[in-house]
């Protein structure tokens, strides 16, 4: 039974939201709460609603939370600000807005964020992860304390309240969800953005995350008094990544993996720029060095990030240990810079079965079926001997793994 009577989709809207990933969904929900009508436009089909967040681990940044306090972690807005600003290294004129944004987000993450999510039905796993520790002095890069709060149910559970609310908006005739509508241009009149124009793409029934066809079946044009672009990043477009690669990191690796689905194509950034948007900090990109090829890929060059504990021995391609504090999970860009300077594009984690069982995890909703499925019996198996199923599958089938019983065999494999 559906409690919301269905009304016709609006033919006019107050706001156009480009992209129905988490950002676009949250923006739409806020607009609905403000009584606005929305055109929610996405190049992908309905199956992909939620974008990257569906694949995500759902690790959220919260400051001085009950979960942290229960674990004896002493956090505060001041400490979080110190960490954030030391990591961001704001030092450009264009950092004016990012600085204000960081302060606003810190207020949010140490204030209403948890209660807001809690009211929406979102719950957290009691163990708080320690992402990007840094490991330098207190005034340098990294999180001084664990702040990575994992949503119970991971990415899909994070999306649920927002998808539900947007669907109610569709039912109530306040939202028109326009799938397979690819925006190619912002409409400009009198120096302002008044709408979007693009093509309707053929319906091809592509599954979530997979590349869908780009065959056009017609055009569309929409107008509204505001346009919000929430089109995601550039991680699925290696040409763009290479074009914006920062000189401080040397030459971009010849082989890159994509941690993100095919739709993260970055096209909308250029389109927005041509429409007058000011893009900043394009070279401040984020990469994970601890990425491995997915043995069971959903999208092209599908990479999965290892969420490593600190115990693996991390060796560069020449066999030298990475210098401290470049331990697994401490400073991803620092380790990237170091590895590229070796003249090679890879490194090795050397670890025992005991370490892999105890502290080797993989990022993403589909690699953590126990947390994603909120499955307590499956979760309890993490306490039993043996690595979790998805980790074991990577160990057995992943092209990047060498498993050996003797040092000689290991070195031969490497
Ligand atoms: C495996 C994985 C694990 C992750 N884990 C975490 C984590 O633990 N914690 C964390 O904070 N973050 C994590 N992330 C990152 C996080 O999920 C993303 O940063 C976030 O979901 C991005 O949301 P978005 O709405 O900005 O973009 P997206 O989800 O990329 O959505 C953008 C949407 O815009 C659409 N679009 C783009 N261009 C156009 C166009 N021209 N016309 C129409 N539509 C267009 C796309 O089709 C897409 O649906 C993870 C990501 C992945 C993939």
Quick structural summary:
With 414 residues, the chain is of the alpha+beta class.
In which order are the strands of the major sheet placed? 6-2-1-10
Bound molecules: flavin-adenine dinucleotide
The domain tally reads: 3
How many DSSP helices?
14
Counting DSSP E segments of at least 2 residues, the number of strands comes to: 15
Order of helices and strands: EHEEHHHHEEHEEEEEHHEEEHEHEHHHH
Sum up the overall morphology in one term: globular
Q: Helix coverage percent of residues?
A: 25-40%
CA radius of gyration is: 22 Å
- How far is the N terminus from the C terminus? 58 Å
**Biggest beta sheet summary:** 4 strands, parallel
Poorly predicted regions are none
The proportion of residues in beta strands is 15-25%
Which helices and strands appear, and what pairs or packs with what?
Layout: E1 15-18, H1 22-33, E2 38-41, E3 59-61, H2 66-70, H3 77-88, H4 96-110, H5 112-119, E4 124-129, E5 148-151, H6 154-171, E6 175-178, E7 181-189, E8 192-201, E9 216-223, E10 226-229, H7 238-243, H8 267-274, E11 291-293, E12 303-308, E13 313-316, H9 332-341, E14 347-350, H10 353-359, E15 360-362, H11 369-372, H12 376-380, H13 389-397, H14 407-413
Parallel strand pairs: 1-2, 1-10, 2-6
Antiparallel strand pairs: 3-5, 4-5, 7-8, 8-9, 11-12, 12-15, 13-14
The structure holds flavin-adenine dinucleotide.
Flavin-adenine dinucleotide binds next to helix 1, strand 7 and helix 8.
């Amino acid at each position: 039974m559906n409690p919301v009577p269905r009304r016709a989709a609006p033919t006019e809207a107050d706001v156009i939201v480009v992209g129905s990933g988490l950002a676009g969904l949250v923006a739409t929900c806020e607009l609905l709460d403000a009584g606005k009508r929305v055109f929610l436009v996405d190049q992908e089909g309905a199956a992909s609603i939620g974008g990257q967040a569906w694949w995500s681990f759902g690790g959220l940044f919260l400051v001085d939370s009950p979960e942290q306090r229960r674990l004896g972690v002493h956090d505060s807005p001041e400490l979080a600000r110190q960490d954030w600003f030391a990591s961001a290294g704001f030092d450009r004129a264009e950092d004016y807005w990012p600085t204000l944004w960081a302060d606003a987000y810190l207020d949010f993450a140490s204030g209403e964020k948890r209660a807001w999510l809690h009211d929406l039905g979102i719950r957290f796993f009691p163990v708080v992860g320690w992402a990007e520790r840094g490991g330098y002095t207190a005034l340098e890069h990294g999180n001084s304390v664990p702040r990575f709060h994992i949503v119970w149910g991971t990415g899909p559970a994070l999306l649920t309240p927002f998808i539900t609310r947007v669907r109610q908006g569709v039912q109530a005739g306040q939202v028109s969800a326009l799938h397979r509508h690819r925006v190619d241009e912002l409409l400009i009149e009198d120096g302002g953005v008044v709408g979007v124009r693009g093509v309707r793409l053929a319906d091809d029934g592509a599954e979530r995350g997979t590349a869908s066809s780009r065959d056009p079946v017609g055009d569309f044009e929409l107008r509204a008094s505001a346009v919000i672009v929430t089109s995601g990043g550039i991680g699925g477009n290696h040409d763009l990544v290479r074009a914006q690669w920062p000189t401080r990191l040397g030459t971009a690796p010849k082989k890159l993996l994509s941690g993100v689905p095919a739709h993260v194509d970055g096209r909308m950034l250029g389109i927005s720029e041509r429409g007058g948007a000011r893009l900043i900090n394009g070279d401040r990109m984020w990469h994970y060095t601890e990425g491995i090829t997915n043995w069971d890929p959903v999208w092209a060059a599908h990479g999965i990030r290892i969420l490593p504990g600190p115990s693996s021995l991390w060796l560069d391609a020449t066999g030298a240990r990475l210098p401290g504090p470049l331990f697994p999970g401490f400073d991803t860009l620092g380790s990237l810079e170091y590895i590229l300077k070796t003249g090679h594009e890879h490194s090795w984690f050397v670890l025992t079965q005991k370490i892999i069982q105890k502290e080797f995890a993989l990022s993403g909703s589909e690699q953590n079926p126990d947390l994603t499925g909120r499955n307590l019996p499956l979760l309890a198996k993490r306490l039993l001997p043996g690595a979790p199923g998805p980790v074991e599958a990577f160990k057995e089938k992943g092209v990047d793994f060498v498993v050996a019983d003797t040092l000689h065999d290991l070195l031969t494999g490497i």
